[in-house]
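Protein Record: Sequence and Backbone Structure Tokens
======================================================
Tokens: labelled as protein backbone structure tokens, with as many entries as the chain has residues.
Question of interest: how does this chain fold, as expressed in backbone structure tokens?

___
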Amino acid sequence: MTDTTGTTDTTDSAGTTRGTFVAAGEALVDIVVPHDGPALSAPGGSPLNVAVGLSRLGHDALLLTQLGDDDRATLIRDHLDRSGVRLAPESVLPGFPTSAATARLDEHGAASYVFELEWSMPAATLPADAVALHVGSIGVALSPGRASVMGLVQQARDRGLLVTFDPNARPAFTPDADRAWADVRETASYAALVKMSDEDLEFYRPGATPEQVARELLGPVTRLVVLTLGGRGALAFTAEHAVEVAGRTTTVVDTVGAGDSFMAALATVALEHGLDDLGPETLRGLLAAAHEVGAITVSRRGADPPRRDELSPGWPHRA
């Protein structure tokens, strides 16, 4: 059982988890337009990417989302099948148009997005064998679907499961930053682990320092706040400690899905090793493990997180 503070005994002797890690939120087709090449279509959506990352790192991952029964949905379902992610049957809504996002890459590989999306995921129930829940991005920001995702969050809290959260700000859908930040704080109050990016920080809390934002989010349930800084590295905050770890040097092909793979790595460590006893060296090891996963992801085109056997022996090397 995993409690809301992240204590866990859900792993076997090989380090793989027993039970289902659920990711809830949007799934869509990313239409990627490179700086100097033809457009490519690929499955995407932050919660979907996290589910794929979790599965490739050895978890039994289940995605709760909202899809139609069209060609876009087929592309997404095939991708989930190849990555070993189960799709909750109630996620398929016949006649519903599956969402899409166009990501235009600049000469540095950074992405900007335009969305075709409606988010009205029906209410759902966590499976009996769920051990953790990840939520984030549009799925937990945009109504009316937000209410269904928050219903899952409440279920997870009532059952004492690990909850992880990545706001992954999308100003196009939540232009009122103050209201969006209030929603983030509400959701974060249920999550043992919260990850944000420096871009999230600039939108939600312009002018605030990372430490100020971390102190706003840390609390009785929220044990760890991680702030990513792109290629510069990441910061980790607990009630007692703050550490920074530089990013890995790598050749960046594009950044699509990089934050999601980083999130999947953090969630993996949280579930497999818990969030107790987070001293400075343990925090540095956690960030280094997530950087390794993120560096591989940005070295490949599209949201293509690594499998566990692509990582260094003994990953995540928790101190």
Notes: The mean pLDDT is 91. Residues 20-310 form a domain with the UDP-N-acetylmuramoyl-L-alanine:D-glutamate ligase fold (CATH 3.40.1190.20).
